[in-house]
Write the structure tokens for this entry.
Amino acid sequence: MKEKKRNYDQDIVGDGINSIQKVLEPASRVSNNTVKYALIGICTLFLLVMLVLPLVVVIVNALKDGWMAYRKAVQDEYTIKALQLTLLATVAAVAINTIFGLFASFLLSKFYFKGRQLLATLIDIPFSISPVIAGLAFILTFGNIGWMGDFLKNHGIKIVFAVPGIILATIFVTFPFVFRELFPVMNAQGKDEEEAAALMGANGFTIFRRITFPHIKWALLYGIILCAARAMGEFGAVSVISGHLRGKTNTLPLHVEILYNEFNTTEAFAVSSILVILAVLILIAKNFVEWKKK
Amino acid sequence: MYVEMKQINKTFDGFHASNNVSFGVERGYLAALLGPSGSGKTTILRMIAGLDKPDSGDILINGTKVNDMPGSKRGIGFVFQNYALFRYMTVADNIAFGLEVQKKSKTEIKNRVEELLQLISMEELGSRYPHQLSGGQRQRVAFARALAPNPQLLLLDEPFAAIDAKVRRELRVWLKGMIEMVGITSIFVTHDQEEAMEVADTVIITNQGNVEQIGTPEEICMHPQTDFVADFIDATRCEAMVAAR
């Protein structure tokens, strides 16, 4: 059988942040195969134990008491309310962070000013700060005893232990995702094309629509997908700020925790399966975008 | 003088990019800004285009002070170093862009695009995308795109830098012929003295933010006025370069 010739210059993994760009030419063929299969084995085993098995456990446990019990758990009033709240927080966070991410990456890639680096670092804070601390910070800022507590109370605005707080916390945690995807792409593009268009008299909106957007659209969609995935699963910050009011400030992950703590294992897993299904849908969308980006 | 720079100063983070720069370019002339890299020639070009603002001094185009006028109102065409063609638009759309922005009528745009495609001998390639073109073709498209809105002044930043040495000479002759045919006042930036000597009517030599000498290629070659110019210009090849015009 003829050995298939391999192009060692091709890209093997997409061009996301943690991608391996090139297939390296193997140094020696003999040791190469052993190493390759050993590595494949380790990776597969690791993924099976760490990812696949737990997901299978979720599905199996969700269906343990039969299909009817599963349906009942999923159609429970509080579950639906939690799902609605999760989707609301996700949509709000994605919308706001998309707009913010666009502005921030446009600013940082097309303009040079003092403190540019500092600003880029600030945007990354949510990556390095624990979500629980973020939630606490919001309580201390917007809560009754917080800095803005009196002002908010006098104006009848409720943020902490209410839906606005949950949305705020979700936004905070998913803050850098769109920016992080867009910035390298916009930075690599340079600003020559925009300058050329501006010199011809195009206004900012035309330049964005016809020059910048076609270049960034797949990266933007990719960032939105990552942002949505993270927003849906957020637990820490939301948990602190929500107050766990069933049917009011409970998101899906919080609802799962409550059910589990009340020893409603089957229900907890059934509700979890909704999140798993959403995650799989997002994964499919993400792969489609990666494939399309090429 | 069609373009005049008067006592222009410009610093970037303490780096003097322009130091009391003054010079003029007459209407219909083709001028070269020649100097080593980092000598401030591109900064001068960008200030004329309105892409950068001088810290002090005046820029005059056709007798009007344009310091505070946006680049798009200055009646200039700009050819970027790497051409900066709009990569998601076809050749025809690239050329049409400036006219569309000016809200010209569809038929007017169509006619102008056809006329320019003919001028650059690329009638058949209007529906191609920039990445499907050779370096020389890209340069021609960039030239046509800059000319589309009928500017009075053409600015070119290192127009031959991205082109193979082999075809560079050919393109040089082509571009000079085109500029003469269109009759547009032009200023181009280059670090290649051969290019400047062969193509330009006027050569402006820059060094460390200063203008060292302004003159015809012959004057620069035969009578260098500063030590820098005498050193920078390759005297042994000078005659050949001037003769090649």
